Amino acid sequence: MSDAFAVNVEDVSKSFGAFKALNGVTLRVRQGEIYGLLGPNGAGKTTIIRLVCGLLEAHAGTVTVLGRRMPNVGVLRHIGYMTQQAALYPAISVEENVRFFAAINGAEEGVREALELVQLYDRRGSVVSTLSGGMRQRCSLACALVHRPELLLLDEPTVGIDPQLRVQFWDYFRRMAAQGTTLIVSSHVMDEADRCQRLGLIQYGRLLAEGSPADIRSQGGSQNLEEAFLALAGRKES
Amino acid sequence: MSGRRVRAITRRLLQGFRRDRRTVALLFVAPIVILGLLGYLMRGSTSAPAVGIANQDSGPLGALVADTLRHSTRISTSDISATDGDAKLRDGSLVAYILFPSNFSQQAQSGSVAPEVHLEGSQPGEDSPVIQALQQSMISLASQVAGRSIRFEPSVKYLYGGASYDTLDYFGAAFVGLIVFFLVFVITIVSFLNERSQGTLERLMASPLRRGEIVLGYMLGFTVLALVQAAEVLVFALAVLRIQNHGNVFLIFGMEALMAIAAVNLGIFLSMFARSEFQAVQFIPLVIVPQVLLSGIIFPVSTEPTALQYVSDVLPLTYAVNGMRDIMVKGADLSWSALQLDAAVVAGFCILLIAAGTTTLRRRLG
Hints:
Chain A contains seven helices and ten strands. Chain A is of the alpha/beta class. In chain A, the strands form two sheets. In chain A, strands 6-7-8-3-9-10 form a six-stranded mixed β-sheet, with helices on both faces. A four-stranded antiparallel β-sheet of chain A has the order 2-1-4-5, with helices on one face.
């Protein structure tokens, strides 16, 4: 049953005008796992994430999150969403941003912990517009997790950040997963795939394959994930 | 200086406009709309101000001048009795009435006439056609009293305002409200647009926040700012510019607050139809300028061409400006039905915009 899964996407299709962004996608994310949504730019990763947090409604199929059919406002307080661009208020400080997102989720007691987790507690007074790109990403992450969501949606969280910070981010992700948080991480970088417990490969709005990195390797017939992905993509197209 | 590099900048600029059809349309449509409106307002004013004539002259000359006045194209006249005059000015059915005293014919024979001109006085533009029409009709006297010139010394009385009022006193009342309305509108539309373009609105939508909460929160935030601004503008207008005020300062402030709330919600609502700050600013010539022209600030609504009067009647700014003038020039309080109507219309418009803003917020993200 769907209750065993934190997120259950069943045969979902979504079009924007004539463009079919998703075409019969089915994927399931288990509670407490890090699920990697992998695929090239424009494959439909962001559309899936936006469907899961109720910003979009599917034309066909169902999306169930934490046991409730989406879109559902009641579930939203249990979801954290980190958008692709670091969506923050540039004119106010780091702490003021985090406190704002905490307040709209009714969880102001988590501000300090969130700031410490992303190591911005010392910079909490800095105005966001003066921060570097990496610090903004960290602040954005803090805003997404400040209310301790059960499900954290991260849309390309490591794009444009340096390798050191990327390692740090994956460290945060693993710690949260260990505490029972479910994470969906989208990426187009294959070397991140190995850090996920399970993967969904997306191309042209379809799910090519789903499984652990080892499963994907064997399905694609290659020890290299990137090659495996390309092999699976080629097979589907022919 | 390289011509090629300069050309590159020019070309890039025009390429951008080619794709932004809306901006191009605005560049060429807005001037025609605004100038056309202005021309129609200034030349097309067919409706002459309504003027009452009370002839108490025991001799023949009062009736003669009154008859000439009836044929004047500058004013539209009706006969009234002198005792009704002030009441008709107050209820707005007349902008002025002219009273020929019982000894008017004798005055003419002695070479100096003094008809009484009673003006409503709250709208400066309405006075001059009345005086002009009266002056012209005096020509008819000349043929009757041959051989001498007659001096024209009307005694002018004002119901509101009056000789001690200058242009600023009339416009000040309206501008105090308009400044707040305009600035609050611009600030709101730009910052709500920022919310959209910096991606935070998407984040808000994925949070437990209800759409109504977002609109209401914005409204409160900007209203607080607007009220501080309104207080500052009011103090400056009254204390420094010494604009005459016959009303209650708190009533003025209340009216300003209503206008500010309307402006905030208009900003939120219209921000849904703009993709960039550039496009947001374009709403100023489209939404603000025609409202200013038609709200009666500069041209009294009663002298507008009839077609435009219908437009003025549905614009909220018309009621807001009218309310501000009623308070400051006429000394209106909330027991006046005119002020009740003005306040109710502006408040109703606020509610309409809150609903509209909340609904569009939902649609844009569907």
